[in-house]
Design a protein that fits this description.
Elements lengths: L1 H17 L66 E4 L6 E6 L6 E6 L256 E2 L5 E3 L7 E3 L11 E8 H6 L1 E4 L7 E11 L3 E2 L3 E8 L2 E9 L8 E3 L5 E3 L15 E6 L4 E2 L2 E10 L1
Antiparallel strand pairs: 1-2, 2-3, 4-5, 5-6, 7-17, 8-15, 9-13, 9-17, 10-16, 11-12, 11-15, 12-14
């Protein structure tokens, strides 16, 4: 029977081939079959191996190669998989779609319906991309930067996760200039702020840990580690340079700005300081010695100012305003100090002034210098230094002497001879008056006035008739009356001034009166 069935199939194939007919409604073959030529099957199911020599054309919507188990499609010369959109994936719902535009060849790869759509691509030998690359977001471990001129597209880098650190490692080894990170920028406009680097660090929340256990915030930290025999070591170097192409102007042209600012309606407790700039130098106690040059926590150098310009020039300029207590403070916290401040002229140079006190506009220096026990030195506007020293007893009194050339107009208006000193009192020892430019006329007396017991008193009253030109009148002498019982030479009230005035009509005729006053401050 089996022989008859096979013989029938063979006869059928022979007849069909003789008639050049290659269409079968149904065909079941239990063994191997080799078909040479063009064959059309309306529906073909193959169980076992299926080998085709020549071209194949499948027009059905779906071709399944054992869809329930894993298979291998193997080709020694497979070169093309063509289609406008090719899907690769475990099912019709979850897949990777590769779409290629027919005209431009632009390719779009899309991952569809995955729970994470994470792509892991492992290449032990590395990746080599040719052409421009635009990355919307990159989180990378061990990513080497591109070499050569690469211009990134505009946009922002994805925020780095809190547990990650962006690290740039550069292996040095050349004698030429070496830079681990080089950022160059040309601003497109000057009508806005321009930054080559803008780094912001914001504290995310208030930390409740104990003092000195809360960590630190450092916007930018740079460290430079040297091991010896090197010309210059700078942990940070910044400079502002203007090479003018025409006459120019600027508001603030600074090499660097450091600022610390506190705000908010709360109390800030300082365990060290609120400091805009701190500069520190350290020499470890284990160092054998440091020789040559200098060791300093701050070094300011104005030597590069190579031209005498109209604007005032300073090596250091301290601007004090607001509620500043001290423009400058030198806090001595070591007994190894030689001096709190030194002004030294070196080599063959000449400095016209070592230390200068001055005012501008209506500014006032109440005392030029105050010493540690309240002693003061000041210039009282007349070109003579006034030395004022507080004392605790008459035995410690230091005699002070001032000369004032007072015009008659100042006498008539009232003129201050010795200004009030907070917490201190004047005691007059002697007052000499000499009329100059003529005799004093019209007025009754020219008076030296003070305050005792909260009342104004005439410490000395010079009679008009005695104030003849060049006559020397001394307190207590002829024409120079003093208070009874020596009260003129007793202490005046603290915090009060000594002045000159007149009794009667305005003084005239004379140019003025020279007043030479000897006194102590108590």
């Amino acid at each position: 029977m089996k022989k008859l069935l096979v013989l029938g199939i063979v006869l059928l194939l022979g007849v069909t081939c003789a008639a050049k007919t290659n269409y079968f409604d149904d065909l079941y073959i239990g063994g191997d079959v080799t078909v040479i030529g063009t064959v059309t099957f309306a529906d073909l199911d193959v169980v076992g191996d299926f080998s085709v020599t020549g071209n194949t054309d499948f027009n059905g919507a779906t071709q399944l190669s054992d869809g329930s188990t894993s298979v291998r499609n193997v080709s020694a010369g497979f070169v093309s998989l063509e289609g406008p959109a090719t899907r690769i994936g475990p099912s019709a719902a979850t897949y990777m779609n590769i779409a290629v535009a027919a005209t431009t060849g632009n390719t779009t790869i899309t991952h569809v319906n995955g729970s994470t759509d994470l792509v892991t691509w492992t290449a032990a030998g590395g990746f080599d991309f040719v052409g421009a690359i635009a990355l919307d977001a990159v989180t990378a471990t061990g990513l080497d930067g591109p070499v050569g001129a690469v211009t990134p597209a505009s946009g922002a880098f994805t925020t780095v996760a809190a547990s990650d650190t962006a690290t740039i490692t550069y292996a040095a080894g050349s004698t030429a200039l070496e830079t681990s990170l080089d950022i160059d920028m040309t601003s497109s406009t000057v009508e806005a702020n321009n930054y080559s680097i803008d780094a912001d660090l914001t504290q995310g929340s208030v930390i409740d840990a104990a003092y000195l256990s809360r960590g630190n915030l450092q916007g930018i930290r740079t460290d430079c580690y040297a091991i010896g025999n090197i010309d210059h070591v700078y942990a940070t170097r910044s400079g502002a340079t203007m090479t003018m192409a025409a006459n120019s102007e600027t508001n603030q042209f600074y090499g660097g700005i450091f600022a610390a600012s506190a705000s908010g309606a709360f109390t800030l407790t300082l365990h060290d300081g609120l400091v805009g700039f701190q500069s520190t130098v350290t020499v470890d106690s284990g160092v054998t010695d440091v020789t040559g040059g200098l060791v300093t926590a701050a070094f300011f150098n104005s030597a590069p100012i190579g031209k005498n310009v109209t604007s005032p020039t300073y090596t250091v300029y301290l601007k004090s305003g607001g509620y500043t207590d001290f423009g400058q403070a030198i806090q001595i916290e070591s007994s190894n100090l030689t001096a709190g401040m030194r002004i030294q002229v070196i080599d063959s140079f000449t400095a016209p002034i070592g230390l200068q006190f001055s005012t501008a506009g209506t500014g006032v220096l109440t005392a030029d210098i105050e010493l540690q026990n309240g002693e003061t030195l000041d210039n009282a506007t007349d070109g003579f230094i006034n030395a004022q020293a507080p004392i605790t007893s008459y035995a410690q009194s230091n005699l002070l002497n001032d000369r004032h050339r007072v015009t008659v107009a100042e006498i008539n208006a009232g003129h201050e001879l010795l200004p009030a000193i907070a917490g201190r009192a004047y005691r007059i020892v002697s007052v000499v008056a000499v009329a100059y430019g003529g005799a004093v006329g019209t007025t009754t007396t020219v008076d030296i006035l003070g305050t005792q017991g909260t009342s104004s008193v005439k410490l000395v009253a010079y009679a008009q008739a005695s104030l003849t030109r060049s006559a020397v009148l001394t307190s207590g002498g002829t024409g120079a009356a003093v208070l009874a019982d020596g009260a003129s030479f007793a202490d005046c009230d603290a915090n009060t001034a000594v002045t000159i005035g007149k009794t009667g009509g305005d003084a005239d005729t004379a140019t003025g009166v020279d007043v030479v006053i000897t006194y102590v401050i108590e």
